[in-house]
Amino acid sequence: MKKIFVPTKDANSWKGFLAEPDKQWQIGYSARTLANCWEYANGVFPSCVQKVLSNYGNMIGNIKPLLIFPEYKVNLPGGNRASQNDVFVLAKNNDELFSIAVEGKVSESFGPTLEEWLHNSSDGKKERIEYIKSLLNLNIDLNPELRYQLFHRTASALIEAEKYNAKNAMLLIHSFSAENKWLEDYQKFTALFGQLGEVNKLYSCQLNNINLLFCWVKGDLKYLKC
Question: What is the 8-class DSSP label of residue 142?
């Protein structure tokens, strides 16, 4: 991944970073909805995200974005395909940095289960899942029905936290689904870390020397029409 970034002009600037722009850039789809929401915020957290985070000042302080990157790729061992985060945020409170991997959703799922992703798996996939398990300190046999995407998104946040010497890493699900579709998959994942994973709640656990955070934010549905 290149290390040179340029500012966006508007939400349409995000389209060119998508893996399948003609397919993904549609009104009501997560890529376009998320882009419009974050662009409207103009360099700060969208109001729906800020409202949730503000309730946890005792946990994270007055956190503010320093840098926001759309469609940010994080390389992982095992294969050539990176984890492409819908948004990556490097944020800061008064004292500490936060590495935040954002996954936008509307109605689409979190992708294949571990069982589906590992079916007839290559050595590269086996290497990757073992790396992620080690990174997440999961020394257990994983439920094959868990969604692979949640693992590599969380890994992205942790990898970037190490890169930036941040003490905090966060998986942030920014959902624009009125029915909170696929919430149960997120909750099954957070349960691995002893967390409930309720909507508009922030959860924290210690993972080695990193404060690992999980948050599901219900986005403003008006952006579905943009």
Answer: P
